[in-house]
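From the pipeline queue, job 12 of 40. The input is one protein chain; the requested action is below.

Action: predict structure.
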Amino acid sequence: MGGLVTAIRGQRRGPEAVDTPVGGDGGRRRPRVLIVVQNIPLRFDRRVRSECRALISAGYDVTVICPKEGPEEPDEFDLDGATVRSYPAPPATSGLLSYVREFVVCWLRTARLSVRTARAEGFDVLQACNPPDTYWLLGLLWKLRGKKFVYDQHDLCPEVYEARFGRRGLLHRVLLLLERATYAVADRVVSPNPSYQEIAVERGHVPPERTAVVMSSPDPAAMVRGPIDPSLRNGRRRLVCYVGIMGPQDGVDRLLDAIAHYVHNLGRDDCHFALLGYGDSLDALLQQRERLGVQEFTTFTGRVDQAELGRWLSTADIGVTPDPPCEFNHRSTMNKTLEYMAHGVPVVSTDLRETRRCAGPAAEYVPDGDPDAMAKTIAALVDDPNRRRQMALIGRLRIERLFAWPEQARAYVAMYHELTAAPTAGRVPPAGATEGGQ
């Protein structure tokens, strides 16, 4: 650790990375943003990829540090115009000590790669995307070298802990301290919705003028319903999809209970259910599927990229957001809900405040996410094609008119223009130029 601090404070940089004022002396180099992501490889992170494209379109250079997708991935490569430096991810976590080890290993590998980036091409702003809230110290060390620090808050870590484990206690207080330190060090805080921004202002004591709301919205020009692939329905008439992380707080176990009720209690065999994603509950969910006897009605795809996601959602008849009610889920904007809406897929969701704000009448809401009620709601929607078409149209229009990514990109880039006083100020990404998929 001491060696890293010395390297950060006294790092020598190559001729392309000399410290020139951004926009000074004729703007000898474009401003560069270094983005740090720990919980997911860049290729699967739609929000961060969209942010990278927005910055590049607006005249910034971008470097991303993240875990590798797999052992075959090179240490350095280009993706969407951004330079990516990746490191081997630690083994899967299974308890408190393994989480601590993961945080320490990832932090040290990220810090070393940040020094390499400073020496190779330089950077002006470090943007840390949580979880976890451990990169405030790296931000503080680089601020000693004159860099700016942006906190891109993807999750409320204290609320995630409470949702996962059903308690608070010492670790909850530690997470609050880490969050508070991150808020204190950050020059700007980027929130994914107004509810998170409220936390930053009220709990984090961040002045409102140092915050910006940038939703993880799809670009309607790029994320659009394509041709149907009947093979995905596995011989059944309809396809119901879940997209997202599979952890204790995500309600996928409730969805499996709803599927069992749909099949065994309602006596229906007209739907196939596809669960797209991964997480530390996946093995337990596969075992639950066997206990419930719904193997032939369900497909677990594992992690999918944007192209594969589009193939499934272009075929889906209903998308499900089963996250149970808790403070974290009430405050969180579910990416899956927005992606369903962008693809013209009607939504069945637990009744959550933020989901209601985003989806409005594009969703049917299940009180408390009750599995039996969810099964009955899915059945009623399957039997009402006119209602599905109406909800699909409403959802798509809400994405186009209220939550389209190009408008979010404008707010994001404007925040960077203000922070860096860059010579590119005033340029914003053109519509449709900030999203895309592999």
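Job complete. Confidence is low (pLDDT under 50) at residues 12-27, 431-438.
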